[in-house]
Each structure stands twice: as structure tokens, then as C-alpha cells.
């Protein structure tokens, strides 16, 4: 597991962790934006009590988790609306074999959710909070990219850079040299030539 990263969304520091090469965002940190006088665990439990939340979580798990216990998730949905229904993330994970959320114990612990689920949870905080969370998360991902990938994101360079994979990782100048292209000639225009 890689070191945690911190993004700040509307003055709230939020932990981003990587597990199994997937980004997970700390919903415990996000819940602090909802209310200073509520416990984060209560905010998350109240969110889990919502039928649309359980539908979203179940659908996400069905798409990405071949071991998800659909039948067990139906038990959760059946109990929506009951005063005694106060599910926890740990209970959800244990009974359904869910992978979209997990609870990390200890000093830097909390409840973490896959980015897709965390963005949905952010809607429960506020639509404005959700938009700022997405923006900060995207900024973090751009910072993590190597400089060479950032250059690929520049659309005018895309045709030339996109062919690097066809030439064993050679850069644009090396491909031009190998193909004996004229200065300014695009690789795309000479793609059918052998070389």
C-alpha cells in the first residue's frame, strides 16, 4: 500500500489511499464537512440507511466484484426504514463481501471508499462539496503523472506521441529520424511507410 496523500476540500483535509492499485478516499474525513457536532461514524451510518445508497453500493459491487453476495445485500435493502436499521460499513463488508469500502483501524484509520463511491457520498455532504472534491482529486492525479504523460494530454501533440508505442518507446525525434521524415512532417502522414 502506498503512502497516503492529503487533498484539501473546502478547508477540510481528506486522506486519499491506494489499495490494490485503486484510489480510496476517506469518508470519515469527508463527514467532517457535513457537521462539526455530529460524529463522522453517525454521518456515514445515516448515509448507509438510505435505500438509494444501498442500491448504488449494490450495483457498484455487482459491476466490479465477482464475489459480491447479492442475496445478502437484499437483506439490507429490506430493512430500510426500520428505526432499528443502523448498518455500519464493517457490517456491510462482512455480510456481503463488498470491496468498495473498508474500515482501517489505528492512528491514520477511518472509513475509506473507492473513488466512485466516495464521490457519491460527497453528494450527501453537498453538491458543491462534491464538485470541489472531484476537482481536487483530479488535480492530485495530474500531479502524480510523470511529465511525459502530461505532455500526451496536450491534444496537438497527441497524433505524434500516440505512435511511440508502435516504435518500442522511441520518442518523437527518434521516430522522425528512423522514418527519415522532413522537419515538421507528422508521423501520421508517414504511418503507412515501412521503417
Write the topology of this structure:
Elements: E1 5-9, E2 12-19, E3 22-26, H1 27-31, H2 40-48, H3 51-64, H4 70-78, H5 89-96, E4 101-104, E5 110-114, H6 115-125, H7 127-144, H8 147-152, H9 158-161, H10 172-179
Question: Can you give a write-up of this model?
Answer:
By secondary structure, this protein is of the alpha+beta class. It folds into two domains: 5-144, no CATH class; 154-184, no CATH class. Helix content is 47%, strand content 14%. The chain has a five-stranded antiparallel beta sheet. A hairpin with a 5-residue loop joins strand 4 and strand 5. Helix 3 (51-64) packs antiparallel against helix 4 (70-78) and helix 6 packs antiparallel against helix 7. The two termini are 43 Å apart. The mean pLDDT is 83.
Overview in brief:
This protein is 47% helix and 14% strand.
Which terms summarize this structure?
195 residues; alpha+beta; 2 domains; five-stranded antiparallel beta sheet; 10 helices
